[in-house]
Amino acid sequence: LLSLGCKAQEFDLRSMKRFDEKVFKDWEVDTSILNCNPATTYLKKGDKRAQIIMDENFKQVRISDTNTPYEQVFQYYIKTGVLKKGTTLFYGMSIGKTHTCDEKGKLIKEENWDAPYKVSIEELITICKQKLNLDLLDKSLKITIHRYNEEKAIYIIRIPFPNTRNTKAKYITISADNGEILLEKEIHSKEEYKESMEEIHNPSLNKK
Question: What is the pTM of this model?
Fold first, then answer.
């Protein structure tokens, strides 16, 4: 994926150097989303989706695709419309690098969200495909993914069982250091999840 820098290329649904509503002139309003906020606009074009938030204090564009769990979020300076920062998300997690720039486009801050994790998102996708026959890019599975870097770096994947009102799910914990599958566990109730939280977040304790 593209690393979003300050001197971004012209808009290609992955990067915008400057806020420009004309970019979306051939998009249509996404009526599938109930919108009660006058500062927010939802648009669509083919498989692409855009959420535009614009008021006197905040200006942001969020680009997504109905076929992938990746999103790009762009924030802009209110007065000039110059790109302030751009971040890539994967299932809502910040990944790659976020570059924050001043109003002249000069880099003033860089955050590397992947630094604590030796196993990259791309490698995680491959590991899940090869070892678990799990396609992390399949949004129909309603997967959620989190990663933590506390006692040890891990990914936690939650796959809900269909037609269970989100109360039953399979949890998978994977080492973000070497890709080892540390835990696979089915949870069948909220009570069972509460009892298993420590095991899910630190499966090595259960092995002692």
Answer: 0.85
